[in-house]
Structure formats: structure tokens, C-alpha cells
Amino acid sequence: MQGQLLGAVGAYFDGPTRSLAHLNAVDIAVIAIYFGIVIFIGFYLKGAATTSEEFFMAGREMTAWIAGLSFVSANLGSLELMGWAGSAYEYGILATHWYWIGAIPAMLFLGIIMMPFYYISKTHSVPGYLHLRYGDGARALSAVSFAFMTVLMSGINMYSMALVMKVVLGWNLNFSIWVSSITVALYVGLGGLRSAIYNEVLQFLLIWLGALLVPVLGLIEAGGWTNLKHQIGERLGSNYVHLWSTTGQFSNNPMGIHWTGLVFGLALVISCGYWTTDFLVVQRVLSAHNLRAAKMAPIIGAAFKMAVPFIVIMPGLLALVVLPFHLVGESQAVATGQHSYNEVLPLMLVRYCGPGLLGLGVTALIAGFMSGMAGNVSAFSTVWTYDIYGAFLNKKATDKHYVAMGRWCTFIGVLISVGTAYLVQHAASIMDYVQGLFSFFIAPLFGTVILGMMWKRTTKEGGFWGLLAGTCTAIGLFAWVHVDPSALRYVALSPDAKGLAEDMYRALWSWLVCVIVTVGVSLATKPRPVAELEGLVYGVVPLPVEHDDHWYQKPIVWAAVIAVLFVILNIIFW
Amino acid sequence: MREEISIWFFGGVLFLCYGLIVFAEGLWELSHPLVNPPVLSNLHAPIWWGALMGIAGLVYTVKFWPKKHRD
């Protein structure tokens, strides 16, 4: 009986496609245990998600550790893991910037500066904060764009993940899409945000469990970090193993970026925009049980985020030296049948992991995908229910009705994601547009939120028109370069700039336009009375004083420790 | 009366299960070597990695074992 069952499951796993690896019974048992626990958690937590506060905000009962791990895990999707491992293979250690300067300062800024305003305003979402600060216009613009893009992105991630599973393990595309999405829909729909958070913490642990062996064994094979650097330098040049020293000119590094783009575009705008205003991640921190936990959560998340390059970037660098064949870009891989950059992490897993450990590694990839998708659908259901349905369509429903709406939204969000996955399967170019579109909203939104929090003179009209102008600028610049690629020299300031540099400068310009328009319109319009801005704007009322028993309980102390470590790491790998 | 299960208990159980499975697989491979072993299989990673996971899982399972308490 057991053999028949495994055979039936195996038939799904072993599709007709050529695959890199085959899972045996032990691997399938490892994956099955994971799915069993995840679904059990959803059913177990169903009883703890009966009110809207419980369903959408996890009852605001999470400790700093749980909120912090969930905060970083919601972002650690499998595409994030595989994509950046592939980027490390393609561009070298420069890919680490997206984990360090492209994340750590923004996370600390969120914890220390912005979290008090989000938390004490008791908002349920980022569009909810915009409503309190700017009124309904900015809220509607932000909520609709966020809800729409979140489910689309979720579908694109789902399709890409299924595609990788097909290439690496020969899994049937439909099987991967449906099994993972039904599981996510079940545990988020039943247990709400609390269930999503619990699973994200488990998934975070699993990702480390499954992926940590690859860099450890890889470094042993390569003869240590110094030998690895030496060999990469000999084969490809030393610009693959330096973080900053090659960024003085666009043409000096394989990524075609400049340090000004990294500092002002990536760190100041894109990273701050994502980590402080993307509700997918901010929602996790809002679930903290008090202000101190809410401030500590992003700081704890930053500490773990800083370590992630060891399991993501390091395998990419190791692959440059230990793999006996060369990886190529996605389009060339499709045309020639070679392996693409994005397959580097699964390839390294297969290289070092036998039965059991391979199952663990594959489970880590599935867990990463599911945590990303759970983050998307739980954020979608919250924004839809609170900021679109509850704010504009049905303002006077009962709490029970909103919880039911949230549960249905979770299932509908998953279904739309599945639909998007199939749409992308037939029109792959949609992926580029949607990924571009998502970045259009984040940079200007950061301008709107940060001005709203820091400057009490900002007005409702200023917020709305600034957000709209910034978004239109981003779309306009994207379209300009799309129609005339030579325009890149103006948008990214150099003809040697490449795609990632374009993203950084486009974000910077759209943010600047948002800020300038917001300031201009605000100065020309009537400010809100200061009394209405209590708890929303810096300097209007004193923030609650925290009474920590010991110095080591203060969030600012730990933020400083992380900041010092961050600086030291950047100097070491300069 | 109701039981509250900590997230760390779930994590402990998961680690313990995986530790036992991977450790047992490593021991099995000692007497039944793989036909196509992975690179560095001479280091017997499943044995020590499985044992580490199992010990960590056991500690967390015991420490965060669900306790009954009155609401």
C-alpha cells in the first residue's frame, strides 16, 4: 500500500521532462511532513482568528522575535533566493548590496524612526495610515495599486517557482501550482495572519536548515574563502569579489552600476520604499504586542537579513569555481538547453545533498515560495477588506462580516494568482511589465509617507498629487527607455549603465518628483490643524516614553550594534 | 482548559523529525553506499547534520512542550 502511494506520488513528480535530480521515498517523506505540519497549524489556529483584529492583525500579540523573523521571512521567497543566487553567479559579490545597503539601513530606520507612528496610530495597514494622514484620495490610490499588484506578483512568483521545479525535479507544472496554492489558501484562510506568521517563522528556520549545508560544503571543496576569491579573480577578474571598490565607474563592474545609484537610488529610495511602506512586510511588524516589540522586530529582522548572503550569494560565487559547466542567461538556456543562472541554487543542492538532505533543500525552496505567497495573500486580503471594501463599498458591516470577507479574499486572491500564473505561461512578456509596474508605486509612496510623518505642513492635496506625479514619472521613464533604449544615458546618467542601474535612478527621479510636487502643492494649500495630526506626525506630540530595565533592552542599542556590524562587513568586503 | 502550542514547539518537532530521518539515512548509507554519491560524501554530512538538527529539535520540543492552563 505504502509502495503504491509513493509510486502514485512519484508519477506526479517524475514528469516527462529531463530533470536534474530525482527524489526518493525519504525526500518525499521530508516534503510530506512539512505540508502536514503547515496544514495542521492552519486548522489549529482557526479558533484564534474569529475577530477582525485577530484575523488581520494576529490579535497584535506577536513577540519581537516572531514578528521579526516573519518580517524577514515574508520577503525571503524562493525566487528571491534563487534569483539572487543566480545574480551572484552573473555579477559576483555585488549582488550582496541588495541584502546589505539595500536592506539594513532601511530596516533600522523603520524600527527606530517610523514604527512609532505606524504603531501608535493603531492603523491596520499602510493605506490606512495614508487615510489618517491624507484622507481618502491617497488611500484609494495606494490600496488599489497595492492590492492589484500584490496578487499579480504572487502569480508570477508561483509560475516561476513551478517552472524551476519542472526543470530541476521534472515536476508537473499544474501539480506544483495547485498543491502549493491550495495549501497556502487553506492555512491563511483558516488561521489568518497569525497562521501566516507562524508558518513564516517555520519556513525561515527551514530555509536555513535546508540551504546552510551548501555554502559550508562548498567552502570546504573550494579550499576556503581566500582560495575561492583567488580562483574567481583568476578566472573572471577581481571585480567579481569587491563590493564597493569597482563602483566608481559604470564600466568597471559586471553589473554596470555606480555608487551614487547604490547609495541614493537603492539605499535611500528603493530599499526604504520597500521595507518601510510595502504593507506585505510592514503588516508583520504591526502584529507586535507592544511598541518596544514593534521597534525590535525590524532590528531582529535586520540581523538575520545580514546573514542571508551566506546561503544565497555564497552558493552563486562557489558555483563560479566548482561547477564543471557554465551557466547562461534565461533566453539562451531556453534556446540551447543549457542551465540558466537561476538554477544555480538547485544545482548546488544536487551537487552536495544526497537523499534526505536533498528533500530538505527542496522543502526549503518550497517553504520560501509559500512564505512569499502567504505574505502576498494575507496582505491583499487585509488591504482589500479594510481599505477598499470596508472604506468605500460597505462601511457599516459587522466585524464578523469583515472576517468572512477576509477569508473569502484569501481564497479569491489565491485564485487570481493562479490565473496570473497561467496567463504568464502563455505570455511571458507580461512578467517584465508587471515586475516593472510594481516598482513604480514603491518609490513615490515612500516620498508620500515620509513627508507625511516628518513634516506637519504636508497637506491632503500635496500627498495625493505628489503620489500621482511620482508614479506617473516612474511609468513615463520606464516607457521612454522601453521605446528608445538609448534614453538610458539620460535616465541612468551613463550609456554604460545596465538594467539594475536604470531601476535605481528611475526610483530616485520618481521619488524626487513626488517630494517636490508634494512640497509645492502643500505650500500652496491650506494645512490641517495640528490637533488633527496627533500620533501621525513627528514633533506634534511627544512619543510614549519606554521604560527599559536595562540598557541592553533598548532597541536603539541593538540598532547601533547592527549598524556597526553592517559597516564592518562592508569594509571587509570593500 | 485549553492547550497553547508555541510556534517554537512546532519548530522543535519539525527539526526533531527531520534530524531523525536525515541521521537514519546517513547511517543507512554507511552500510549501503549510494550508486551516485554527492560531492564530499566522504564527510558524511547527513550523519552530523541530522544529529545536530535532532538535538536542537529535541531541546526545543521539550522546552516548549504545550502546558495546560486555565483561561
Based on the model shown, name its key terms.
heterodimer; A: 574 residues; Sodium/glucose cotransporter; 24 helices; B: 71 residues; mainly alpha; 2 helices; 2 strands; 62% helix
What does this structure look like?
The complex is a heterodimer of chains A (574) and B (71). Chain A has 574 residues and is mainly alpha-helical. Chain A has a single domain (51-572), classed as Sodium/glucose cotransporter (Up-down Bundle), CATH 1.20.1730. Chain A is built from 24 helices and no strands. In chain A, 57% of the residues are buried. Chain B has 71 residues and is mainly α. Chain B has one domain. Helices cover 62% and strands 8% of the residues of chain B. Chain B has helices at residues 7-31, 45-63, and strands at residues 2-4, 67-69. In chain B, strands 1-2 form a two-stranded antiparallel ribbon. In chain B, helix 1 packs antiparallel against helix 2. The radius of gyration of chain B is 17 Å and the shape is elongated. The chains are: A mainly alpha (574), B mainly alpha (71). Chains A and B meet through helix 2, helix 9, helix 10 and helix 17 of A and helix 1 and helix 2 of B.
In short:
The complex is a heterodimer of chains A (574) and B (71). With 574 residues, chain A is mainly α.
* Greatest interface by residues involved: A-B, 29 and 26 residues
The CATH topology of chain A is given as Sodium/glucose cotransporter
What would the principal axes of the Cα set say about the shape of chain A? globular
Given as residue ranges, the uncertain stretches of chain A (5+ residues, pLDDT < 50) are 1-17
Tell me the radius of gyration of chain A.
Answer: 23 Å
The coarse overall form of chain B would be: elongated
CATH architecture of chain A: Up-down Bundle
**Strands of chain B, count:** 2
> How confident overall, as mean pLDDT of chain B?
88
**Helical element count of chain A?**
24
Share in helix of chain A: over 70%
Strand order of the largest sheet of chain B: 1-2
* Binned strand content of chain B: 5-15%
Largest sheet of chain B: 2 strands, antiparallel
Low-confidence stretches of chain B: none
Spell out the CATH superfamily of chain A: Sodium/glucose cotransporter
Can you tell me the number of structural domains of chain B? 1
The number of domains of chain A is 1
Total DSSP helices of chain B: 2
Number of strands of chain A: 0
Order of helices and strands of chain B: EHHE
